[in-house]
Amino acid sequence: MSRSIPHEIQALKRQVDQIKKGQRIAHGASIENAAVEVRDDTGSLRTIVGLQADGTSGVNVVNGPTPPAPSLPVVESALAALTVTWDGTFADAQVAPLDWRRVEVHVGPTADYVPEQGTLRDTIETAQGGTVTVPLPYTEWHVKLRSRSASGAVSAATPAVAGTPRKAEAADITAGAITADAIAVDALTGKTITGGSITGALIQTAAPGAGARITMNEGDTNKILVYDSAGTAVGELSDIGLALRGSSGAILQLDPDATYPALKLSNAARTEFAFINVVEDPSGSVNLMLNTSPYTASGNTDMRWRQYMGNDFAVIERFRDSTSGVIGGRLDLRAAVAALGYYDYTGATTFADFALTPNLGKVRGRLNVKPNAGDANTVVLVESAAGHTGYLMRLYNTDAGTYRLTVDLAGNTTVGGVLKAGNIATGSVSITPSAANTPTSFTLSGLNVAGTTFHGFVTANTTVPAPSTGSGGTPNGVNSVSISSVSGSGATIWVNRQNTTNTTVNWMIVGS
After folding, report:
1. What is the C-alpha separation between 319 and 374, in angstroms, rounded?
2. Cβ–Cβ under 8 Å, residues 498 and 475
3. pLDDT in tens, 336-381
4. For 126-146, what is the mean pLDDT?
5. Which of 260, 262, 220 is nearest to 243 (CA)?
6. How confident is the model over 205-232, as pLDDT tens digits?
7. DSSP assignment letter at 411
8. Rg (CA), the chain
C-alpha cells in the first residue's frame, strides 16, 4: 500500500530529529533536569538514566528479567553455627545475567518455610561464590538460596538443605588453644561467649578493693563469692550449699546435701545457732524439725528446745542433745490426744501432765487451783450440761478400791470416811453430880465452831437413861441431861442423876 506524500514527509522529519539528537549526545551534549529512558524492542522500560523520581541522579535498572536460581548450597556443621557455601554456579548451568547482584542465604526451622525478610541471615555478593557462617541454636535448620538482580527481581529458592550446629568438644577448647594473640585484653567487653567452657580460671566482676564484686573459683576453692562494698564476703555458693552473711555478721546457710535441704542460722561468731531440717522417720515421711542452740541448764551443758512436726503429730519439748531425754515442759499434739506437762527422763523429779482426749480431760499429778488476788468469781465450778445423768463428782481411792466421796446429780453426797466440818464440833465430858437429884454443870470452852447461829445436842452415855432402882433397891438412874449457853466457843452441859455416879455425856454443837 502506497503512502501519501504528507505521511512520508512526517516520517522523514522524525528520522532527522532522531539523527540530530544522537549527534548532540555523541558530541558531549547535556541533559537538563531530565532523564533518558531506555526501552526494549517491545517498548518496556528497562533503564532510567539521569534524574530519578526521588530527586537523585543515576542509572536505575527496572523491570529486569528474573535471575536464575543458584545451585544447591553445601551446608556443614560448625561450633554453634552452620557454614553455607555457594560455588558460584546456577541451576541448569545457566549463566548469570549482567544485572545479577547477590545470592541471599535464608535459614528456617522447617523444610517447607517460604524465604522472606525474616529468614534472611546473610548474602554472598560475588558471582564467584563464597562461604558464610550463620550462628544458630543447637537444633536442625534448613538453608535455601535465591538470586537477586539489580532491578530487585528474585529467583526461585533452591530446595532446602538441612544442617545442625554442633556443641563444643574437647578438641575445640584445649590448654593453650586460646592465647593472648587470640583474645586481647578487653576484647570481650560487652560480648557474649556461646557454646564453650572456661576451666580452672578466676572470674570476677571487679578487682579486690574495687568495692562490691562477685568472684568465681577465687583461690581455686570452687566457690562463688559475693563481696559487699567494704570487701567482706557476704554470700557463698559451693558444693556444700548456699551461705549468706548479713550486715551484723549473722549467717544463713542452706545445705542441700541431705535428702531434703537444711537451713542453719548462726551468729557472727558461729558460737550460737539454730537449724531447721527434715527427718524421714519412718522412711518416706517428711517431718519438719526446728532446733535451738545448746545451752547450760538443769545441771547439763547440752540442753536444747526443739519443735517437731511429724507424721500426724507435733511436739515442742526441752531435751538433752546427747540423750534426747526430756527434762522440763513438753507439748504433745496428736490425732486423738493433746498433752501438756512436765517430764523428767532421769526420774529425779516427778512428772505431771494434763491430757485431753475426745470428751475427757485427765490430770496426772497434784492439782493446785489458786485464783488471782481480788477475784470474785468461783474458784472451782462443776456445771453439768443439759441432759446429764451421771455424777457431778466422785473421788476414788485406788489403794482402797472404793469411792471416798460422791455427789450425784441431785446433790446427794456420800462420804466414804470421817466427815469433818468447821461448823460441827463433837466430843464428850465426864460429870460427877454434886448430890443425888441435883443438877450439876460442866462448862465447855475453847471451841471455834463456824457459823452465826448455834445449836447444841447432848446425850448421856449410860445404861440407865431414866429414873430406876438398882439392885438392893437403891435409885441409880439418869434423870436428865441438857445443854445451855451454846455458842461457837463452847456451852454449859448439865446432868441430873438419882445418885452421884460419874456420868459421861456426849455433846455436839452445829453452827449455821
Report:
1. 38
2. yes
3. 999 999 999 999 999 999 999 999 999 999 999 999 999 999 999 9
4. 94
5. 262
6. 777 877 788 888 777 777 787 878 777 7
7. -
8. 59
Instruction: Quote the CA–CA distance of 4 and 53 in Å, as a whole number.
Output: 41
What integer pLDDT is reported at residue 231 of this predicted model?
78
159 contacts 72 by C-beta, under 8 angstroms? yes
Q: To which residue does cell 560448625 refer?
A: 78
Distance separating alpha carbons of residues 38 and 17, to the nearest angstrom: 17
Q: Is it the case that residue 28 has pLDDT exceeding 60?
A: no
Kindly report the length of the chain.
512
Judge residue 105's burial from the number of C-beta atoms within 10 Å of its C-beta, 0-12 exposed, 13-18 middle, 19 or more buried. Answer: buried
Cell triple for residue 87?
Answer: 560455588
Spatial CA neighbour of 149 closest among 41, 84, 62: 62
The predicted pLDDT at position 181 comes to 45
For residues 503 and 431, the answer to whether their CB atoms sit within 8 Å is yes
SS3 content of the chain, % helix, strand, coil (to 5): 5, 40, 50
How many C-beta atoms lie closer than 10 Å to residue 455's C-beta? 12
Cell 568495692 belongs to which residue? 211
Residue among 147, 142, 175, 178 nearest 161 (CA): 142
Residue with cell 534426747: 324
**Which of the two residues, 39 and 143, has the higher pLDDT score?**
143
Of residues 464 and 195, more confidence is placed in 464
Output the pTM of the full model. 0.50
Residue 178 to residue 184: CA distance in whole angstroms: 10
Angstrom distance (rounded) from CA 165 to CA 85: 15
Q: Could you give the strand order of the β-sheet that contains 130-135, starting from the edge strand earlier in sequence?
A: 74-78, 81-86, 130-135
Using alpha carbons only, give the angle 241, 243, 245 rounded to the nearest 5 degrees.
Answer: 180
